[in-house]
Design goal:
Number of helices: 1
Oligomer: single chain
Radius of gyration: 19 Å
Strand order of the largest sheet: 2-3-4-5-8-9-11-12
Shape: globular
Mean pLDDT: 96
Structural class: mainly beta
Largest sheet: 8 strands, antiparallel, barrel
Number of strands: 21
Helix content: under 10%
Length: 334
């Protein structure tokens, strides 16, 4: 990817910069389309704040969500391991693992995620383990910009360096007395630099796999000046094609969460239309006090079933993040 630097060393931890909100995070998702099950997991090291952000969110076939969110103490940025969740690079640019052993909350109604205080007090708990082996199907995409004025994927006030890759994902998940062998696909990323979630005004992110040789990662981001940024890649025959343009049409439910999505994507080589059906929504939020001001963002993580315009089925995650003003998401209904 021109204009970006990416080295093998970037697979590992970076020297933290002085910003209080320096973050270095790794993220893995993986989905078994046949069984309609999957998960995403993330470790964000906030070494200058003395803690990590640990997240596990499992979408069960019956619509329940099993999840855990912790902020374990952190004394070093040397590795990504926190709260029972551990990430390892097996072979740079080719293979990583993410595994977890601990407890999860079982949510019959994922809407309780909107009131985390209630959720942490009342949600039933169960032991959980998972292990994902993620082998790259695509080239790496992204890195750290070589031009100090260049735009980054999510904006410089959210991350400086960022790279990602579509994967073949296999492994196992166990929740309580239920277990599943996973044979599917997924995606992983690694980001570093200063980050506040509330710096995002609003964006629409789409990540999906359509078998071993096709996939997408599309981001439509609107900044506080009202400027729209469209970034992303379409994977076709295991090669990434940078997008030239992207259109997004969203249908919404009564909670102002996406219920279905239509995408129109154009690269130099092709034009594609895709339709996404939301299976399960995990409605998260992020709250932070900055300079005495209370800020909140809505983070909707939606397990999504996709269809390419030639009928090829796909599976993945749809993420809608938006700043909240007067209790309302600023991007709705766009």
């Amino acid at each position: 990817m021109s204009g970006y630097r990416l080295d093998v060393a970037d697979e590992y931890s970076h020297q933290p910069t002085a910003e209080t909100n320096f973050n270095e995070s790794v993220y893995v998702n993986g989905w078994d389309g046949r069984q309609k099950i999957g998960l995403w997991s993330r470790i964000g090291n906030r070494i200058n704040e003395g803690h990590a952000e640990m997240s596990v969110c499992i979408y069960l076939p019956d619509g329940r969500v099993a999840c855990q969110f912790l902020r374990p103490e952190l004394t070093s940025n040397d590795k990504h391991a926190a709260g029972g969740l551990e990430y390892q690079v097996i072979e740079p640019f080719k293979s990583v693992t993410m595994k977890y052993s601990g407890e999860v909350m079982i949510l019959d109604d994922p809407q309780v995620l909107r009131t985390p205080g209630v959720m942490f007090k009342t949600a039933p708990r169960a032991p959980c383990e998972f292990e994902y082996d993620c082998v790259g199907l695509s080239p790496m995409n992204g890195g750290e910009p070589t031009d100090p004025n260049a735009e980054t994927m999510y904006g410089r006030d959210f991350s400086l360096g960022h790279f990602n890759q579509h994967t073949r994902t296999t492994g196992r998940i166990s929740v309580g007395d239920e277990s599943w062998v996973i044979d599917g696909h997924g995606w992983r990323d690694h980001s570093w630099g200063p980050r506040f979630w509330t710096n995002i005004y609003f964006y629409r992110l789409f990540i999906a796999n359509f078998g071993d040789d096709r996939g997408l990662m599309m981001l439509k981001r609107i900044d506080r000046q009202g400027v729209t940024h469209r970034r992303g890649v379409l994977m076709f025959d295991n090669k990434y094609e940078q997008i030239i343009d992207m259109d997004v049409m969203t249908e919404w439910d009564d909670n102002k969460y996406p219920s279905s999505v239509q995408l129109g994507i154009r690269t130099e080589k092709r034009k594609v239309r895709l339709e996404g059906k939301i299976l399960t929504v995990a409605p998260l939020r992020n709250h932070r006090e900055i300079n005495g001001e209370s800020l909140e963002s809505s983070i909707v993580e939606a397990f999504t079933e996709w269809s390419w315009d030639d009928g090829r089925p796909g599976i993945g995650i749809t993420e809608y993040i938006e700043f909240m003003e007067d209790g309302e998401p600023v991007g709705y209904p766009l």
